[in-house]
Amino acid sequence: MIKVGDKLPAGSLQEFIEVEGEGCSLGPNSFDIEKSTAGKTIAIFGLPGAFTPTCSAKHVPGYVESAEAFKAAGVDEIWCVSVNDAFVMGAWGRDQKTAGKVRMMADGSAAFAQATGLTLDLTARGMGLRSNRYSMLVKDGVVKALNVEGPGKFEVSDAATLLAQAKSA
After folding, report:
1. CB proximity list for 113: less than 8 A, separation 6 or greater
2. Could you name the active-site residues (predicted)?
3. What stretches in the chain show pLDDT beneath 70?
4. I want to staple 85 with a disulfide (CB 3.0 to 4.6 A). Which of 56, 67, 75, 108 is the partner?
């Protein structure tokens, strides 16, 4: 599993783009992880799935509500990463009103989750291989803080915990 001090794995994530601009076309666009994190501080939180109860009621809303506080703490972007396709992540972002606050990044084939070792096998529940619930603070592609939840828990990956870590980083 990835740990503090490690560089994020090479690869890409997808984001559904609503408004064309800055070299991005409408619809799903791929973003190289290394290029997208270079020279930036990124708050990343991962979760099992779009539109799921804890993710929709607690996890995403906490980061949306704290977006300005994260910026004030020196965080350039907030990413929500989930093993869903970019279309689903785009629809969930609209539902959660994340525009301009949280980038909804799709890890459709679970490649990022597998490369970081932050997987959760929900095959028995009909959901297949998913992302574990976690949060991490990343500076210039290197993990500076990592908070991984235990099975079924939501105690350390919340926005308040990562914001406190960003303020002290």
Report:
1. 46, 81, 83, 107, 119, 120, 129, 130, 131, 132
2. 55 (cysteine sulfenic acid (-soh) intermediate)
3. 20
4. 108
